Amino acid sequence: MKKLLCALAVAAIAAPGLALADGGTSCATAQEIFSNQPYSGDTSTSTNFVGAFGGLPSPGPDLAFKFTAGAQTGGNVVVNITGGWNAGVVITGACGGNGGNPIQAATGTTTFNVPLTNGSFVAGNTYYLYVTGNPSDNSGPSGAFNFTNGTTPVTLKDFSID
Amino acid sequence: MPIPALALVPLFPLATASILTTDDCWLGEMYAFSAAECSITLHNADAKPLHVELSTRLATLETTSLDIPPKGSAKVRVRVDAGNASGRVERTVRVHSDRAADTTVWVRGFAINVLDNPRTDIQLGTVDASKPTETTVAVDSHDVANFRVMKVLARPEGIDVAIDPNGRALHVKVASDAPLGVIDGDVKLAIDTPHQREAWLHVYADVRGAVGIDSSPYWFGTVAPGSAAGALIPLTSVSGAPFRIGAVKLGMVEGKTEIVPCEPAASGCSAIRVKFDEKQATGLTRATLDLELPDQHRKMHLRIWGLVQPPGVAEDGNPLPAIATPDNSAPWTEGVVDSVNAPVYAVPMTVDPYDVVSSTPPATEPPPGTGPLLKWQTASEGGVYGYQVFRGESESGPFLLQNEKILRAHPKQYAGTPYFWRDDHATKGTSYWYYVGVVYKDGTKQVLSSPHRKVAE
């Protein structure tokens, strides 16, 4: 039997429902995210609590999420920006300004991907995903967003042949 | 208080936006590496002709300039090549007019890939260049009978690929003379199916040898375009012995390179300095370095990335200028047409256009006929595009797709309603095995049920 190859295979299985405003406003409150779930939020409700992602500036307010890498990662986190603000999404290995250089980052004003290349993540390690302003835009942009990390596997309730 | 006269002046372009309206178009279901066409429609509500200019990427327009007649409409054909896409195929056409606000028209379709695993990802992991190992990868399709891989059309440098004699598997390994560094590309195959002649499989390996780098891709920090200091990329030898770096080729950016000592200098460490040109676009920046290691008789492919910024801004706190164009940083994977990466000019819709929208409830009674009737019900089906039914004459197969047109998922408000599919081509008295598969909106597939047996009556 074939196995579904999820776009993002994070280790956690349980999944919270879609909340209206997701994301932590500090490292301590970084929201844990799970594979195959949509998340949304608004960085204008937060502060610029991350001064920099290692060598990458963080001029805008930040919302923090965290996830545990599974044995296999791949695909993309697909980010949708509401209202065309100049957004950035950054993944690091630890939270805050001392969290080291970004492992992955992407920016955009509409829809963009944050690639989850297999070689970049170690299974079992915790990673932080921030939604923030474009590091190149010192105006400190902020706004609403949503992102998804894969599709939810379908479960069969009943199957018969008459 | 009187209303200021200015407030009564219509504000361009909002007041004129309504004279131009558009209709999106649907390409239909198409196979990977095929092309499809549909027509977008442009409506002019004004009493005068409306001149518009059209632009797009990753699609071909019948025309890029036209006049829409007064109080009339015009259609424009759009041709889209699905390329290696699986699932959503989305393109946008931007419509510009001097007398109306710019608007965006969506061109959508759905790409079906005949492979059972349309997004096969061959992960070879970290590989010791002196001891490459072989991996066998199944490449199969239940969409067509007698599927076979015919030929390897292309492969990334440093990857050896052999087709198994059964035509349904590949033997993949890092070549003995592979370049050091990351190999990240596509194995392109010729396949023998009526609808799809080509299939691409992604392969990734991190080849390690006598000379290496801390991380790949290597983060070079923040660098100003035109800066003499540039970005320093240190390489080290595993043994600590000195080594030479030969010719270096810089890719994806505007700049130059030079070989310099590491900072601080260390035994067995040499560095490449990358100086970005003044004209290098700012923002998150990715680049490639292809170099020769003459002492090791090897090539090395490096990927680097960082932030290219105007000088001084990061260190002294001076305001950064607003960037003129958004930096839609592309993923590393090259050559893969991924619909999500297609340029978009509008905020995504809140309703997924790939959901079936209908107020008509699905049939609750099975279709008429005497053939085997499959009935299934799902507990959840988020992200589902539709279903496929496969049939074989033994439990172990081979199985073959029976419904060429995908059976679409129910509208959301009718989720949980049973699905019916009747086999009208079964031969009475013959024993068949059936299973149901699901196709997600991203084109991936999943086997939903185990094979069930039924003797046709």
Beta fraction of the residues of chain B? over 45%
Quote the average pLDDT of chain A: 75
Output the number of helix runs of chain B.
1
**CATH fold-level name of the largest domain in chain B:** Immunoglobulin-like
Helix vs. strand class of chain A? mainly beta
Give me the CATH architecture of chain A, please: Sandwich
CATH class term of chain A? Mainly Beta
Q: Count of DSSP E strands of chain B? A: 32
Poorly predicted spans of chain A? 1-20
Q: Using DSSP, what is the number of strands of chain A?
A: 12
Order of helices and strands of chain A: EEEEEEEEEEEE
- Count of all domains of chain B: 4
CATH architecture of the largest domain in chain B: Sandwich
**C-alpha Rg of chain B, in Å?**
28 Å
- The helical percent of chain B reads under 10%
Major sheet details of chain B: 8 strands, mixed
Mean pLDDT of chain B: 86
Structure characterization notes:
The complex is a heterodimer of chains A (162) and B (457). In chain A, 0% of the residues lie in helices and 36% in strands. Chain A has 162 residues and is mainly beta. Chain A has one domain (32-148): Jelly Rolls, CATH 2.60.120.380. In chain A, the strands form three sheets. Chain A has a five-stranded mixed β-sheet with strand order 1-5-10-7-8, with no helix packed on it. In chain A, strands 2-11-6-9 form a four-stranded antiparallel β-sheet, with no helix packed on it. Chain A has a two-stranded antiparallel sheet with strand order 3-4. Residues 1-20 of chain A have low confidence and may be disordered. Chain B has four domains: 10-112, Immunoglobulins (Immunoglobulin-like); 121-208, Immunoglobulin-like (Sandwich); 216-311, Immunoglobulin-like; 373-455, Immunoglobulins (Immunoglobulin-like). Helix content of chain B is 1%, strand content 48%. Chain B has one helix and 32 strands. In chain B, strands 10, 12, 15, 16, 18, 20, 23 and 24 form an eight-stranded mixed β-sheet that branches. In chain B, a hairpin with a 6-residue loop joins strand 15 (180-191) and strand 16. Residues 1-16 and 313-350 of chain B have low confidence and may be disordered. Chains A and B meet through strand 4, strand 6, strand 8, strand 9 and strand 12 of A and strand 10, strand 18, strand 25, strand 30 and strand 31 of B. Strand 12 (155-161) of chain A pairs antiparallel with strand 25 of chain B.
